[in-house]
Design a protein that fits this description.
Blueprint: H1 4-27, E1 35-39, H2 45-52, H3 67-77, E2 81-89, E3 92-99, E4 104-108, E5 111-115, E6 121-124, E7 133-135, H4 140-151, H5 155-159, E8 161-166, E9 175-180, E10 185-189, H6 193-196, H7 200-205, E11 211-214, E12 220-223, H8 228-242
Parallel strand pairs: 1-3, 4-7, 7-8, 10-11
Antiparallel strand pairs: 2-3, 4-5, 5-6, 8-9, 9-10, 11-12
């Protein structure tokens, strides 16, 4: 028995040493983060870096295996953050931030509601002016569809939209009238709004005067007060150019 104990002791000690060496190589205390890439829109990147507490001198072992925890911590730090994703690739950290975007406001039953990026409603006192007001929508399904399309737009374009009115007519059962902050009015279609509204900045930049930008069945513009005949000619000219 006495001869076996030292052997067992050495075996245990060797196993412990191997374990500690494995831990050291796993944690790599000498290794630090080389780059931190942050993808955000409105929130400053240095603020996100502060929330994450990560920089180029951060030890690698503090990040490895902790990315989900760090992402959750970032979200808790700021009410404007909807979600965060932290990924570690080698010695490089990537942080992607999805910010909470107000898709609009709508009045229903004498109450105002704020609409989030998913088209969900939350009761508020009054619109804050940071997103368009929706009007005349008959179903929440259409509001939800529009909200998801709106939040996908570039920030400058979103900020230029003041009001979105559901205004069907005999030619277009899903027509939208969009009041722009720059003085123009846009005619669009609910189903194609998210794609075709992106043409607006280029069209508006070439307009000599304020007027209508029609994105329903083509993409053309005309001045306020232009006769229907001139409008039809411009529409035909645009279609010819597309062919």
């Amino acid at each position: 028995m006495k001869t076996k104990r030292p052997r067992q002791l050495w075996i245990s000690l060797a196993a412990f040493v191997v374990f500690m060496i494995g831990i050291v190589f796993l944690l790599q205390p000498w290794r630090t983060i080389k780059t931190v890439s942050i993808n955000t829109m409105m929130i400053p990147t240095d603020k996100i870096a502060t929330y994450a507490n990560i920089n180029q001198q951060t030890p690698y072992w503090r990040i490895g295996g902790q990315t989900k925890f760090i992402a959750q911590h970032i979200v808790k730090q700021d009410d404007q953050i909807d979600s965060a994703q932290v990924t570690l690739q080698g010695s490089n950290v990537n942080i992607n931030i999805v910010e909470k975007v107000t898709a609009g406001y709508i009045e229903q039953g004498n109450n105002w509601y704020i609409i989030n990026r998913e088209g969900m409603f939350k009761k508020v006192q009054t619109p804050e002016g940071n997103a368009p007001v929706y009007a005349n929508f008959k179903t929440n399904k259409d509001v939800k569809k529009l909200a998801k399309a709106f939040v996908s737009l570039e920030l400058t374009l979103r900020q230029n939209i003041s009001q979105i009115i559901f205004s069907p007519n005999k030619d277009n059962a899903n027509r939208l009238i969009i009041i722009m902050n720059d003085g123009n009015t846009v005619y669009a279609t609910l189903d194609t709004f998210g794609k075709k509204i992106n043409y607006y900045p280029g069209i508006a930049a070439q307009m000599p005067v304020k007027g209508i930008v029609d994105l329903q069945f083509g993409a053309y513009s005309y001045a306020y007060g232009t006769s229907q005949a001139n409008t039809t000619n411009k529409k035909s000219d645009h279609k010819d150019k597309q062919k």
